[in-house]
Amino acid sequence: MGSHRSRGPRSPLGERQLDELALRYVGRYATSRAKLRAYLVRKIRERGWGGEREPDLEALADRLARLGYVDDAAYALSKAQALTGRGYGKHRVAEKLRLAGIGEEDGLAARAHADSEALAAALRYAERRRIGPFGAGEADPARREKAIAAMARAGHSFALARAIAELAPGAEIDADALRERARLTPN
Description:
This protein is an all-alpha fold. It has three domains: 15-66; 72-116; 118-182, no CATH class. It has helices at 15-28, 33-47, 57-66, 72-85, 90-99, 108-116, 118-129, 141-153, 158-165, 175-182. The longest helix is centred in the first third of the chain and has 15 residues, at 33-47. It is elongated and about 65 Å long.
């Protein structure tokens, strides 16, 4: 049946193996301290712990942050840029940051980016989903309400979602008028 090797049960983790796992993880993935701790907890649960004392995951994550391998603020900004670039709104960005364990201070630049990109991200989302001015020409109220709901789930404010969804298919996009209708502050 081929040369597939079975690993069998793996030995419990010790301090050195935990450090190696953490370094491998941060070397491979952009992450936050909280996500790193969650990964290590999962690995300890899977393999067990064989160290002399309880693992101090907080200290390990903080040490890697001091060394520059983990940067919550940079991770948060990168996540915000990726999400807004794909058309997601500031509420979705805030939720993703919360789930990643990003603190208030570390998320400042990310939230500021999401605020400044609110209109552009909403228009990207609307274009991708063929909503409002990017639609096919049908002005069905039920479809418009579904489009508004989809935009709200994507993290856009209800006012902004409504302002975009109510634009006629093919309509000229006036960013200032949309900002005013949605009560957004200009960039």
